[in-house]
Amino acid sequence: MSKRMWGGRFAEEPNAILEEINASIDFDRHLYAHDIAGSKAHASMLAKQGIIGAEDAKKIIQGLDTILSEIERGEFKFSRALEDIHTHIEARLEELIGPAAGRLHTARSRNDQVATDLRLFIREAIDRLDQSIAELQLALAEKALAHAGTVMPGFTHLQPAQPVTFGHHLLAYVEMLARDRGRLEDARKRLNECPLGAAALAGTSFPIDREATAEALGFDRPAANSLDAVSDRDFVLETLAAVSICAIHLSRFAEEIVIWASPAFGFIRLSDRFTTGSSIMPQKRNPDAAELVRAKIGRIVGALMQIIVVMKGLPLAYAKDLQEDKEGTFDALSTLSLLIAATIGMVRDLEPDEKRMKAAAGEGYATATDLADWLVRQLGMPFREAHRIAGEIVARAAKARLPLHRLPLSEMQAIEPRITEEVFSILSIPHSVKSRTSFGGTTPLNVRAQARKWLKRLAKERKGG
Ligand code: ARG
Questions:
Q1: Bridge partners of residue 152, in order along the sequence
Q2: Would you call 34 a catalytic residue per the annotation?
Q3: SS3 track for 63-93
């Protein structure tokens, strides 16, 4: 007799290839703790409802606890022939407590069981991600406060645009990460409904208490439709979409680190802890960690795409296709954790070269907009005209190979005679950033206030406020 749960009507053993394609134990073993938690809640409920005896429930629960510690100590034997984690645990339970084990599966199916396990797993992963993203925000906000007044070129099209501060740039990522956390939190809210008790697809004829199991497992409520409960994987898609967006943000930051750390830019320096050397070129300091953060998003988005394709056109309710919802998900979730950890490390490690950044901020006529704004403000010119005149002055300076603030007044007056000496006061880089006082702008005053706001908020969160 085979140990297969469904062995009853089968006379022959499965073909080896079926066994190989069917088995999910290599990856769904990660669900062991959630599966055991779900089974314990189910067994207690069954006993409370008088569906199984209290003695049997006690044995089941003790047996499940034994299995949990066996798995955690690495003493549990996994085998492909037992298909998945649910079968493994039930088979071992039978070895441990005998026939009472067979009562555990009353009024449930692996379909509602696995849907419950995966929701529990993802919920836990979201909570952990939330904490580590908050830690990254903290690292960024701390660095931003330290560099609220450190000027650098702000870019559009990767061309010097207007001077900004390094702190301002870092805080942009704090905002993105806040939205990432919001998306994950939102996904968590929607996934927090309990499928347990939906059974195979239609519910059960036993007088179960779905509210009780939902509550015991920390769900907000039982899922209202049994067909939906066993076949929905929106929660996987939604979580992976949020995870992908977060990975996009990290990859953008990683790309900036790669650019900034390149000697051609020389804006930041990463220590030996976050760079590697080349086996042939002795001078190299390669930003491998940043490059891998930039690249590993491929597998995360790959997991999202994979599950989108699995779900598309899948008829209700459960189909074995749904077993393909796990491997990529587990990988995407643990990969994002790693990317966050690596990014936290790099943020703490990197040191900006303030001199180089300031010099670069002055290159490329980054204060041309300040000049145009001055013409508008002082001479009452329409902005379009001021833009044209500032452009002509930039062209003249470029021809003379001079920065704007070194171009003689007479040269400027040749283009617009009303320009006065006063213009030079607004052409400096520090003045430029200081003048951007509009809400959300780059003035160090704003940046400092924003960084402090985030630090306060994150500290409060940590204390559970
Ligand atoms: N290993 C399966 C999965 O992950 C468990 C559910 C099996 N259900 C079934 N009807 N064969 O989806």
A1: 164
A2: no
A3: HHHHHHHHHHCCCCCCCHHHCCHHHHHHHHH
Residue 140 has pLDDT above 90, yes or no: yes
Residue 69 annotated in active site: no
b or e along 181-205 (b: 16 or more beta carbons within 10 Å of the residue's beta carbon)?
bebbeebbeebbbbbbbbbebebbe
Q: Whose CA is nearest to atom 7 of ligand 1?
A: 110
DSSP letters, 234-253, are HHHHHHHHHHHHHHHHHHHH
Tens of pLDDT, residues 59-80? 999 999 999 999 999 999 999 8
Mean pLDDT, residues 122-135 taken together? 98
Residue from 236, 320, 324, 326 to probe ligand 1 pocket by mutation (most atoms less than 8 Å from CB): 320
318: helix, strand or coil: coil
Ligand 1 centre to CA of 116 (Å) is 12
Residue 323: CB within 6 Å of ligand 1?
A: yes
What tens digit of pLDDT does each residue of 2-34 get?
566 777 777 778 788 998 999 999 999 999 999
* Torsion (CA) 156, 161, 162, 163 in degrees, nearest 10: 80
Peptide bond into 317 cis (omega under 30): yes
Instruction: Give pLDDT, residue 2.
Output: 52
